[in-house]
């Protein structure tokens, strides 16, 4: 009996501590996760219909960016993953959705997404993002290479794009808006090239899109 009493005396505080820890854990509320999108709002008016269709291929990004969490540059060689601030889909999927939506909204085309051409030219769009730097309260810098292919996968044009968007004020929503506008500038470059085909010229990024402040 004495051994059992001693064991009980030892176990009772431990059990009480375990119960208290469980209760505290149950009362702890996880920090909320905020979600953002690269797909901008629809324009007030629809553009004239384009004479071609597009097929935006899956976007390729650097390995460290293949995630939903925002990644911020905090120094020359330091990055910070923001698990509490995430894209609504993994970044490659967000980039593809945004590029498709921007091309459709600005140029009146249709993204067939792998469907067969419907009686008019079809161009496949490939985007490789080498740089996607976001600085909190600073800027969004996107560097990419994009290519246009014919429906039979014949390469037609490959160009480079680099867009920096200054963020008006500190905030994750402002960073997302700056990224939206940077992608819209790249889409404008691609769309301009598509309209100019069969002329094979890499157009400059639209001047009005470069250097504007996000939030305007």
Overview of the structural elements:
This protein is an alpha/beta fold. It folds into 2 domains: 1-30; 32-214, Rossmann fold, CATH 3.40.50. Helices cover 31% and strands 30% of the residues. It is built from 3 helices and 9 strands, in the order H-E-E-E-E-E-H-E-E-E-H-E. It has helices at residues 2-27, 91-107, 172-196; strands at 34-36, 53-56, 60-61, 69-73, 79-87, 122-135, 139-150, 155-167, 213-214. Strands 2, 3, 6, 7, 8 and 9 form a 6-stranded mixed beta sheet that branches. Strands 1-5-4 form a 3-stranded mixed beta sheet, covered by helices on one side. The longest helix has 26 residues, at 2-27. It starts with a helix and ends with a strand. 26% of the residues are buried. Residues 207-216 have low confidence and may be disordered.
The number of E-state strands comes to 9
Oligomer: single chain
Unreliable runs, pLDDT <50, ≥5 residues?
207-216
Question: In angstroms, what separates the terminal alpha carbons?
Answer: 79 Å
* CATH class placement of the largest domain: Alpha Beta
Radius of gyration: 25 Å
Q: Characterize the overall form.
A: elongated
**Mean model confidence by pLDDT:** 83
Derived from helix and strand composition plus strand pairing, the structural class reads alpha/beta
Number of domains: 2
Determine the strand fraction and express it as a percent band: 25-35%
- Examine the coordinates and then state which fold CATH places here, giving the name of the CATH topology of the largest domain: Rossmann fold
Tally of separate helices: 3
| CATH H-level homologous superfamily name of the largest domain | ABC-type transport auxiliary lipoprotein component
Helix content: 25-40%
The assigned CATH architecture of the largest domain is: 3-Layer(aba) Sandwich
Q: What is the N-to-C order of secondary-structure elements (H for helix, E for strand)?
A: HEEEEEHEEEHE
């Amino acid at each position: 009996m004495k051994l059992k009493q001693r064991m009980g005396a030892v176990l009772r505080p431990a059990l009480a501590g375990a119960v208290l820890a469980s209760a505290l854990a149950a009362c702890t509320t996880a920090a909320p996760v905020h979600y953002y999108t690269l797909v901008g709002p629809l324009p007030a008016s629809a553009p004239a219909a384009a004479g071609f269709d597009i097929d935006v291929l899956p976007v390729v990004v650097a390995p460290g960016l293949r995630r939903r969490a925002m990644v911020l540059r905090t120094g020359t060689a330091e990055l910070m993953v923001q698990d509490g601030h995430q894209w609504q889909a993994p970044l490659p999927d967000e980039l593809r959705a945004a590029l498709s939506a921007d091309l459709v909204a600005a140029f009146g085309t249709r993204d067939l997404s792998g469907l067969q051409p419907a009686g008019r030219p079809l161009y496949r769009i490939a985007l490789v993002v080498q740089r996607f730097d976001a600085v909190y309260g600073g800027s969004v810098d996107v560097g990419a290479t994009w290519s246009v292919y014919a429906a039979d996968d014949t390469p037609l044009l490959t160009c480079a794009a680099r867009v920096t968007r200054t963020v008006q004020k500190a905030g994750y929503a402002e960073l997302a808006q700056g990224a939206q506008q940077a992608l819209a500038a790249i889409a404008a470059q691609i769309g301009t090239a598509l309209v100019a085909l069969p002329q094979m010229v890499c157009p400059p990024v639209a001047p009005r899109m470069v250097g504007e402040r996000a939030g305007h």
